[in-house]
Amino acid sequence: MNPMLKIGIACYPTLGGSGVVATELGKMLAEKGHEVHFITDRMPFRLGQFHTNIFYHEVEVSDYYVFRYPPYDLALANKLAQVAKQEQLDLLHVHYAVPHAICAYLAKQMVGEHLKVVTTLHGTDITILGHDPSLRDLIRMAIHESDAVTAVSRDLMLETYDVLAIDKEIDLVYNFVDPRDYMTPANPQLRAGFAQPQEKILLHMSNFRPVKRITDVIDIFAAVHRQVPSHLIFVGEGPDLAKAVNQVKELGLTNRVHFLGKQNNVAEVIGLADLLLLPSEKESFGLVALEAMAAGVPTIGSEAGGIPEVVRHGIDGFLASVGDTQQMAAYAVQLLRDPQLWSDFSRAGMQQARMKFSAASVVEQYEDIYYRVVGNS
Ligand code: GMT
Predict the structure, then answer these.
(1) I need a surface site. Which of 225, 314, 331, 345 has the fewest CB within 10 A?
(2) 335 and 191 in one domain?
(3) Residue in 197, 179, 347, 348 with CA at minimum distance from that of residue 272
(4) Ligand 1 centroid distance, CA of 117 (Å)
């Protein structure tokens, strides 16, 4: 039997899917008996209450007046090394290459070869930052120096080989959801706060960055609403939020579109929806689509990046070319008007979330990688 491991996890604790995946993975590993140490600048927002086997180490960044920019990266590298030594960690599993993979590389230099580093690439750390001349060579070095590298979709894996000319094997490990979190049936009282029983609810959840094409979300909704009485719920915030609010006003849809801002209990909000809209320009995986599938909510989205590896066109969702809002709206109307088709999609998505993206099997894949790098396989 393999021994239990001591694992340090670094991630963005408050930002998007990579932090969610890292936190959920840490929770699952701790449930299996591993000792998990989160090393982040604040408590990961999905960590919630106290968990056995989970420890939290806060990265404190110096604000000494000489610094024009607070040296977060250096403080993180130093803390990773400190915790690794003090807790005798077997490995660091860092999520998102910049700066985490680079910090882990530095920590390893300080601690010694026996500290292994596993880096998980999540998306824009490669698809955007990998093209940035100010970071590219550093990202490439950190990938090559990691003991193992994983990508959350085949699309991202291929793009990493391509963009950074990587000659090291990258493991494909899909994101996952814990289905237990998505089993609660929709709360009828909450739903009634947004829509009449005969009306439909469409949902979009993101960080409102240009890559999410928020204006497309509203265009799709406007076209759907003309044919099927419905409401649109937005969860999240980010740079394009103000633009979205204006567009909704201009289209006279203010009483139909609800901006909820950041929400902690996403499973509860997803459970209210009939459809998820994800028309992104680029998406390495699309964790929110998987969360929706787990809750039985079909996705209408774009064929961008890794989305087709998650949502199966015509089986548990519908996908169209990026920017083809009319086609996406037509698909949405088709699904909303056909309860049998909607139920088939809903069931197929739930099954797929529990099979291909099952937490148990993904966590085992990560464990196999850990044992491979620490030399116990
Ligand atoms: O890269 C980003 O945009 C941020 C990152 C995040 O932390 O949410 O998102 C990426 O990682 C997620 C988790 O693996 C994926 O589900 C998202 O598709 C991916 N975002 C993009 O590729 C734009």
Answers:
(1) 314
(2) yes
(3) 197
(4) 21
> Which atom of ligand 1 lies at the shortest distance from residue 120's CA?
14
Q: Which residue has the higher pLDDT, 156 or 47?
A: 156
Which CATH number fits the domain that encloses residue 333? Answer: 3.40.50.2000
Nearest residue (by CA) to ligand 1, atom 3, is: 124
Q: Which domain holds residue 263?
A: 179-355
| 362 and 239 fall within a common domain | no
User: Does the beta carbon of 16 sit less than 6 angstroms from any atom of ligand 1?
Assistant: yes
Predicted model pTM: 0.93
This model of the complex carries an ipTM of 0.94
pLDDT digits (tens, 9 = 90+) for 137-178: 999 999 999 999 999 999 999 999 999 999 999 999 999 998
Looking at the structure, tell me whether residues 151 and 242 fall in a common domain. Answer: no
Q: How far is CA 277 from CA 66, 177, 221, 283, in A?
A: 46, 19, 9, 13
Q: State the distance from the centre of ligand 1 to the C-alpha of 197, rounded, in angstroms.
A: 34
pLDDT band at 15 (very low <50, low <70, confident <90, very high): low
For residue 1, tell me if it sits in a domain: no
